[in-house]
Specification:
Length: about 260
């Protein structure tokens, strides 16, 4: 399916699952929506933590169509939204039409689903895609660089990669700096504060088999951890794995 068709199906409620594997050739984005008074702090936070928060579009206050997707509506075109109040997840919604305000600024952040499609094209298997699961994501002991009220741990996504393909995976993903780029850690999860690899903080675990290495990339869920720590009065994000699909192709973002 084309990107516009999937967005229409999401908007109508026909498509409600995570978007991993959907529209492989099109860029998908993490989403953060918050009141204008916090927008500069978040912009600065993203600038200082570009590995986890690579900005690919910013919508001005009250605007809900992205320049990356003609005819899109950020209020309806994500399968599942998370609504945070004072740093706590309060609600999960299929759309945010009745809570979106004129002073809300929307940030779109690059997503690792872009480089996943390139890994698959190069014969590197991804078990969560094969199993139709959401990628496993973990809070780490790596601190992000604070900005204003925003701070918190780096969140990473994990993919088991066959040992003989690890170097190739690094080379492929580093070509997409706007989609998290190269891994931030390879190997022992405990070295970055993950003590129970089988219990991700977000997403779903997949087995790490013999002759495979867990590889960790910075993740666009990092701002959600920052929102919890910052006690922002109101903030809306995508649910992990439920992305905004743009009309731009992955090749448009190759470095």
């Amino acid at each position: 399916m084309k990107s516009k068709e999937v967005r229409q199906r999401i908007r109508s409620g026909e498509f409600q699952q995570n978007t991993s594997g959907a529209c492989d050739e099109f860029v998908q984005a993490n989403v953060v929506i918050l009141p204008k008074e916090f927008a500069f702090d978040f912009f600065l936070y993203a600038y200082r933590n570009q590995k986890a928060c690579p900005l690919i579009d910013v919508l001005e206050a009250g605007v809900y169509e992205s320049r990356l997707a003609k005819g899109s509506d950020i209020r309806t075109d994500i399968p599942l939204y998370h609504v945070y109040e004072n740093g706590k997840l309060q609600e999960k919604r299929a759309d945010i039409i009745d809570v979106f305000q004129d002073d809300y600024v929307t940030f779109l952040l690059g997503c690792s689903f872009t480089f996943e499609s390139q890994l698959l094209k190069n014969g590197i298997s991804l078990r969560h895609v094969e199993s139709k699961k959401n990628v496993a994501m973990y809070r780490t002991n790596i601190a992000t660089i604070p900005a204003g009220r925003f701070s918190g741990p780096l969140v990473v996504s994990m993919r088991p990669i066959a040992n003989e393909h690890v170097d190739q995976a690094i080379e492929i993903t580093k070509r997409f700096p706007n989609m998290h780029g190269a891994p931030v850690h390879i190997g022992d999860p405990s070295e970055i504060g993950i003590d129970e690899i089988e219990r991700p903080d977000y997403g779903e675990f997949v087995d790490i088999k013999d002759k495979e290495t867990p590889v960790f990339w910075a993740c666009g869920v990092t701002p959600q951890a920052a929102a919890v720590q910052a006690n922002i009065p109101y903030m809306i994000t995508h649910a992990p794995g439920h992305m905004f699909i743009t009309d731009w192709t992955n090749d448009d973002f190759v470095s």
